[in-house]
Amino acid sequence: MKKTTNIMIVGVGGQGTLLASKTLGKLLVAEGYDVKVSEVHGMSQRGGSVVTYVRFGEKVYAPIIDKGEADFIVSFEKLEAARWLEYLKPEGQLITNLQETDPMPVITGAMKYPENLIEKMEALGVKIDAIDALALAEEAGTSKAVNLVLMGRLSKYFDMSEEAWMAAIEACVPAKFLELNKKAFALGRA
Amino acid sequence: MRELMLGNAAVARGLYEAGCSVVSSYPGTPSTEITEECAKYDEIYCEWAPNEKVAVEVAFGASVGGKRSFAAMKHVGLNVAADPLFTLSYTGVTGGLVIAVADDAAMHSSQNEQDSRNYAKSSKIPMLEPSDSAEALAFTKLAFELSEQFDTPVLLKMCTRVSHSQSVVETAERVVPEAKPYVKNIQKYVMLPANARGRHPIVEQRTLDLVDFAEKSEINRIEMGGTEIGIITASTSYQYVKEVFGDEVSVLKLGMAWPMPVQKIKDFAAKVDRLIVVEELDPFIEEHVRQLGLEVEGKSIFSLLGEFSQNLVAEKMGKKVECGKCLEDAIPGRPPVMCPGCPHRGIFYILKKNKCNVLGDIGCYTLGAAAPLAAMDTTLCMGASVSGLHGFNKAMGAEGEQHSVAVIGDSTFMHSGMTGLANIAYNQSNSTVLILDNSITGMTGHQQNPTTGYNIKGEPAGKVDLEALCRALGIERVKVVDPYNLKECDQVLKEELAAEEPSVIISRRPCVLLKSVKLQPALHVNADKCIGCKACMRIGCPSISFRDGKAVIDHTTCVGCGVCQQMCPKDAIERP
């Protein structure tokens, strides 16, 4: 049986992780895979740490990805990459935005935002593709397009055609934001 | 058509295909999207009811009227609807009636992790339990057939991982059964003691008939594999078991949580050496199996708490699991917080400043309990802030009345806060109730409610006037404040706490996430004026952080509400 591929999308509630997973799910179903996408709605979406699991292959059972199982982690925020690192396979690929968003324990002064996270993760031997997705999203026209920049970067690791990605984006993004999101995707993929 | 569909959307699709005509629900994570998706089908009449009891009673009326009907709710919502539920079991139905209930093991967005399967057993109502979106769709349709065939409401049990996972489904056309003509039937539908006594034996016979169905139905299926271990499981636990073991073990997958088969379980047990039940929360299947006189393991291996996962199942069954690498650094937690510009923030700051005892309720504003505001003393269930405050004040006397408030949202007030307020007016405590009116049901993702003036489709609808309602309930002091104006909130709160009669303060400003709200440009800190006193950080706004001895505002998330400006002693926070 063909192996299941596991992608985790992690970030801060409100960053648009759900649109990213929706686009990815659309693409993978169109490619003919069995797909499961699992997300959590509700309270955690209010600025909390959020995670979406995307699994695809010939036959997928569990809707979630467990520790040590992720082939890819796409992180919308640096601290979140560190938080979910345990879920990455030893040979897995981490794609992370360089953006830092202070969580409440840091805002209240109870804790410090850990320093040099990228360097420390590299020292552990983690394969990291770090990207300033916020800057690229703003270049595309809006800070809200961080999700499409990161999807663009993720797309480089797969052999699906650019047309297939575009079709999935068109199916998920409202028409008036389409050009902007396509541009963000292209900047991430470049 | 083959498509990827959220479990909740698959239930809605099932309702559409089954020809369901009337849907009434109250939102609650993780059940909310069932009804939201349903509202997209013009063929189905769909509404948000003020609470789950009303929703189930609406579905009951529609069923008596001859149409297929439905209500959805979260697990704790079924507690609210339990009153009609138990007697609906006796009356049975005319048009098929299905009630979806979504459990939340691990409490992603809930106040407890009760197991709704117990309701099926105690109310003697059959319950189906899908394990993915395809089954969610198929079981919804089957539920209507069972409802009409066995003259019973049917429960459809969802859970967070089935409701909020997308998997592949095949859709079909809508088929509407012929509406049944209304026939007055007092013996069946008027549950006077004499009639109810006549119905009870029918209910008991129905359960026996349903056991017979459970024996034969393919939704309770045996998948034979290795016979050393036989696992009885259901819902997402089935998926984890298959993920870990594949065909290594034999599996009896129960698609029907209640009633359970007897012979099928005995036959399965006879084929395997060791029988294990894998189920989240209560030992519901396990106790049934044990009652059959079979030797079985379950909660001696698996926890009563939280959700399962593939690693958890593997580890508990003695398989080795390898985690990934992790950093040594302490990673600060990232709990949910009130959004930048949230109208609840200012009110909670004022409550904290006045050292109030705050009896809280269920909604986004429950986040007022979190640091740094930590301005909440209790949260129990929908509406308990208002009724709880009355009891608290009766116990504490003037000491309580002068320092204590109830805090409840607009939707929660309509759900079950009104009756508590009537009690305050009737039984006379000098209680101060704050209704945080953000013009929407917030936490569940923006649903309309009776105070918003719009229906589920966003069309103009009837509108309950909160001020008039509070007065009609017997509260004469009703004040309205703007939560962005800290001074006004502080002053009115002090006045109402001191007043020697009950009062209501309505804190009114729409949720900033509403599309209709015009956001202001982001504020910025004038570094020359900022003295680094951190006064602005006491309100716990996620847009404000502290860098190099000065406050900094994140321009990508700040919506310019201006509450932090009122905190700054040096006027260092400026509008662009």
Characterise this structure.
The complex is a heterodimer of chains A (190) and B (576). Chain A is of the alpha/beta class. Chain A is 38% helix and 23% strand. Chain A contains eight helices and six strands; from the N terminus they run E-H-E-E-E-H-E-H-H-E-H-H-H-H. In chain A, strands 2-3-1-4-5-6 form a six-stranded mixed β-sheet, with helices on both faces. In chain A, helix 1 (17-30) crosses helix 7, helix 5 packs across helix 6 and helix 5 (133-140) packs across helix 8. The N and C termini of chain A lie far apart (34 Å). Chain B has 576 residues and is α/β, with parallel strands linked by helices. Chain B has four domains: 2-216, Rossmann fold (3-Layer(aba) Sandwich), CATH 3.40.50; 220-316, Rossmann fold (3-Layer(aba) Sandwich), CATH 3.40.50.920; 344-508, Rossmann fold (3-Layer(aba) Sandwich); 524-574, Alpha-Beta Plaits, CATH 3.30.70. Chain B has a seven-stranded mixed β-sheet with strand order 3-2-4-5-7-6-12. A five-stranded parallel β-sheet of chain B has the order 14-15-16-18-17, with helices on both faces. Chain B has a four-stranded mixed β-sheet with strand order 9-11-10-13, with helices on both faces. Chain B is globular, with a radius of gyration of 27 Å. The model of chain B has no long low-confidence stretch (mean pLDDT 97). At the A-B interface, helix 1, strand 2, helix 2, strand 5 and helix 3 of A face strand 1, helix 8, strand 8, helix 11 and helix 14 of B.
